[in-house]
Amino acid sequence: MPHLNKLDKKYGEKGLSVIAVTAENVDIVKAFSVHHTNMDYKVYTKSSQRGFPNMRGIPQAHIIAADGSIAWSGRPSGVSDKKIEELLKERSLFFYKKFKGCSKSAINNILKKKYGKAYKYADKNSEKIDTAKDMVSYLAKIATRQLEHTKSLVSKGELAQAYIMTSKLQKEWSGTDTAKKAYEIQKEIKNRDNKKEYRATKQLAKMVSKIPRKSKDKARLALVLKKFAKKYDGTKAAQNALDWAKTLESSWP
Fold it and tell me: Are 218 and 248 in contact (CB under 8 A)?
């Protein structure tokens, strides 16, 4: 949905994350995205709708506040800039309240995803300030989830995505053990055994980053992907390329 794409680009660096949730399987979502080339945000498949209120129709949007509560529900077209800006202000107030007693610069670093700087401050002051100890715990949970996700990408053979994630972690967690662990994962991704797979997944990611709108261009891309699959035969990227080619050659119901 173009409306949600714009919100994601405009407020992404300020704390907004746009995520689509569907009970459909990944093949259906991939086919939809190929024939509706206006979705730039993440989509989670085979998801449960439990926990969301008033699921009376599809599509439906929910805005989740910093404390985990659902702050707004309605049609996606009803998500306004004004509402987003209000909630981003509330997000800042939430963290200032949660970590009251900590330095404002440390809290601002969390808001800006400069987790390394915030963590070093919190770790240094955890014995003197109770909320600094809470900050350490909060940031440790974020780091654990991010590292687990990155390792999951590696295990699935999604090496290009994993490499991008490790670079992001090294930047966000600069000067911490999390950054060091991300660097070690990055070395593993580019080692001799993974070199071919990494090169292939990186190239494939670039090839499918922008799906063409015209049918003839989709057919042309499908042929290119089939040639790519032959070149990198035996890799996970080759199988993914064939899946993409099949989807591009299909028609949406």
Answer: yes
- Contact residues for 178 (Cβ-Cβ < 8 A; gap 6+): 115, 116, 119, 143, 146, 147, 169
pTM assigned to the model? 0.76
Which residues are paired to 16 by β-bridges? none
CA proximity to 52, closest of 32, 68, 41: 68
pLDDT in tens, the chain (253 residues): 667 778 778 877 777 777 777 777 777 777 777 776 666 777 777 655 555 555 556 777 777 777 777 777 777 778 888 888 888 888 889 999 999 999 999 999 999 899 999 999 999 999 999 999 999 999 999 999 999 999 999 998 888 889 999 999 999 999 999 999 999 999 999 887 888 888 999 899 899 888 888 889 999 999 999 999 999 999 989 999 999 999 999 887 6
